Structure formats: C-alpha cells, structure tokens
Amino acid sequence: MWNVLLSFSGLVALIQLIFLPFFPESPPYLLLQKEDKAGCLKAMKQLWGEGNYQTELDDLMKEKAVTKGTKIMNVLEVLREGSVHPQLCTMLLLLLSLQLCGLKIFETANLQESIIPYVSLGVSISELISIIFCSSIIERLGRKVLLRGGYWIMGSLLAAITVTLSLQDWYFWMPYCSLALIILFTVVFAVGP
C-alpha cells in the first residue's frame, strides 16, 4: 500500500500548492529580513484582521535591535559550533532513518536487492547535501518561493515516477530512470518543502 501513501502526500502537497499563493509572507520575515515595515503591517492585517498592531510591531523592532549585533552564521560556522551538535546529530539520525522507510519503492523499481542499501545511503547523503544547500539560499529566496517551486517540481516528479514504474517491464533501463527520479524527488523535497 506504499503507492496509496505516496499518493496521499502528493494530494496534501497539491492542496498546499493551491492555497499557498493566497497567504501573505510572515510578518517577522517581512520586517526582519526584507525590512518592509508597510508589508509587515499589511500582512498582520491580512492574517489577523483590522486592528492596531503597534505592540507586535514594537516587539519585532526590539527583536530586530537585539539581533542587529548578532552575526548570522553560515552552514560551516553552524557545523563548527559545539552547542548545536546534539541537535545536528538528532536531525542526521532522523534523516537516515527516514531513508529506511523508502526501501520498498526501490524493490518495486526492480533494483537488485544487493544494491538497495547503497542506493538508500546515496539518497540520504543527497538529502543532507540538499538541506545544507537550502539553508544557504532560504534567506535570499524566501520560504514561500521554495515551497511553491518545490511542490510544483515534486508533483511533476511524482507523475514521472508513476509513468516509469508502470513502464519498467517494457525497457531494461526504466528502473534506473525510476531511481534517478526518486533521488531527484528527495533532493527537491529537502530544498523546498
């Protein structure tokens, strides 16, 4: 029943993709990252209705003042910071364990059973690299752009995976196309949603 489960996540992604354009950007993101005070107030009114949001705006301005002197760390600096190693280890273990859940789709793609653990390890490493890449571009592009683009690409990839899994008995090279699409799906998921 893995195909039903995979279809369900595609349905949820489609629903989010349809409604995401109607939501405003996060007010803290607009004020702290984009420095758009008017956009921040507009987003607050769109999210919470008409009202006076001066208190919330003052809190965000205080947060901006506090973080102004704080250096934003890049990925390598975060990896060198010892205080975050437990969180990084937890995230890494979670990512690796998630890959074990995808072994069934590799079996369905008619891959040799002896190479499936190596393929799973490759997918895990690809996902980890994608997450590191995402953390370096998320502030420049914004979460909304990454989510919207990621869901569109993931939907297309799910359709292509369905086709390649259906045609794998016709062509000897089709399981490898399925594998490439699955890895690409994982990478896009890690960068976007």
TrEMBL record:
Residues 1-193 form the Major facilitator superfamily (MFS) profile domain. Its main location: membrane. One of its GO terms (molecular function) is D-glucose transmembrane transporter activity. One of its GO terms (biological process) is dehydroascorbic acid transport. It comes from the Eukaryota. The keyword Transmembrane helix applies. Keywords: Membrane, Transmembrane, Transmembrane helix. It is a multi-pass membrane protein. It is found in: Membrane. GO terms for cellular component: plasma membrane. The chain crosses the membrane at residues 6-24, 118-138, 150-167, 173-192. Gene3D superfamilies: MFS general substrate transporter like domains. The keyword Iron-sulfur does not apply. Pfam families: Sugar_tr. This is GTR9 protein. It comes from Quiscalus mexicanus. The lineage of its organism: Eukaryota, Metazoa, Chordata, Craniata, Vertebrata.
